[in-house]
Amino acid sequence: MTNEFFSTLSGNGQVAYQSIQELGAINSRVLNKLAEIQFNFAKLGIESSVEQARLLADISSYEDLLSAETDLASEYGDKVMALTLETTEIMSMSRDALIGWVEKQFEEGSKTVVKAAKPKPVAKKSSGKPAQARVA
């Protein structure tokens, strides 16, 4: 085995390692953003529960309670919608980042395949004997 073989193998290993690091960075960013969204959903649920308990304690008439609950549902519905839209944007950005990563991998892979496909001249060893004519 030649040094060229090991050099190529090492280069391919480094490219693969860098590629996996890039993919890991993309996944890490997405997971951090999604964890933040999940935290905000949990926080919103707790805030909503506390607000409902406060309404039940403070309101004396049924009509006032219905009106306050309607307002509360509308307010928190809007907040949930905003978090849902933010989640959709994160997933869209994640998809775009992954598409870019895959396209980059195909480009790098194509370069390697083309490079490997180029034939290299092979020196023939002469046996010192004249070539024999083939009889058909």
Write the layout of secondary structure elements.
Layout: H1 3-58, H2 62-117
Structural features, described:
By secondary structure, the chain is mainly α. It has one domain (3-116). Helices cover 82% and strands 0% of the residues. It contains 2 helices and no strands. The chain is rod-shaped. It starts with a helix and ends in a 19-residue tail after the last helix. The mean pLDDT is 84.
Overall shape: it is rod-shaped
| Radius of gyration over C-alpha positions, nearest whole angstrom | 33 Å
Q: From N to C, what is the helix and strand string? A: HH
> Fraction of residues in helices?
over 70%
Q: Which spans have pLDDT < 50 for at least 5 consecutive residues?
A: none
Percentage of residues in DSSP E strands: under 5%
Separation of termini?
38 Å
Number of helices: 2
- Backbone structural class: mainly alpha
User: Mean pLDDT score, rounded?
Assistant: 84
Give the biggest beta sheet.
none
Counting structural domains, the number is 1
Tally of DSSP β-strands: 0
